[in-house]
Amino acid sequence: MSIAIIGSLIGGIVLLFMFIVLSSYVLLWFQALVSGAPVGFVNIVLMRFRKVNPSVIVQSRIAAKKAGLEMDPSQLEAHFMAGGNVIRVIQSLIAADKADIPLNFQKACSIDLAGRDVLDAVRTSVNPKVIDVPNPNLGKQTIDAVAKDGIQLLVRARVTVRSKIERIIGGATEETIIARVGEGIVTTIGSAKNHKEVLENPDMISRVVLEKGLDSGTAYEILSIDIADIDIGKNIGAELQATQAEADKKVAQAKAEERRAFAISREQEMKAQVVENQARVVLAEAEIPKAIAQALREGNLGVMDLYRLKNIDSDTQMRKAIAGDDDGEIGPLSN
Fold this sequence. Notes:
By secondary structure, this protein is α+β, with helices and mostly antiparallel strands. The chain is built from twelve helices and four strands. Helix 1 packs parallel to helix 3 (54-66), helix 3 packs parallel to helix 5 (86-98) and helix 5 packs across helix 6.
């Protein structure tokens, strides 16, 4: 008896669970039916087995139907199983239809699966958005450029863009627009004769940059480029000249020091050469007594000749002493 009661309880719980589950499917089926966008009950049940959220499919089909768009549930399921955002795609199709923008389901799915926000693209196509150049969120507040007169200008610009649906897939993003506009601003200011010319005609920057066709290959169409602010920065030209002058000064000092070191080295070499020559003289004078002795032995020099040489040497020493030459040098014949 107890086993029968337990079996009955289990059966009742199972039936209650099945009723709750089936009732949710029934509610979805009935909601789709009364909304004029019917989806088969069996199909709704099988969606769960295909790992598809039936609520998303039914709600998306109902929203599309109310907006006057006919969506095949199988297409919605296929996009869901591909990892796409079905609700976002349907919302973008509805927004595009109301704004009279050509966008079909396949194109919207492709944009969504490419990782782009298809609804944001449609909204931006209807309501253009403004991009700050440079992007302050990246920590840079101004575009810095230098005119030909060396004066730095700090510029902030605002670019108004509109999405081009046909270029969303494969088109460059906002970062490319910011980089290209920044490059155009730097080039335009750099080609200006002086900074006053830019300050007097800031619209010159916008005009020149727009003529470059910077939106080519991007997902946007540039509508306008407006210079929000322009300030004077540093005198880069003067700073560069000062830096160059300091560098030239150091080079000149280095060359002068090199010449001074060479002169000192040359002086020391000459002094060494003088000492060497003096040593050679001393050696040569040391040979004189030897030569005299040799001449006496060979009879080529007499004693009287030797005395006369000594007298001449003594006379020379005396004359040097009288003349103030007190270097103390002694002639070779003094001995």
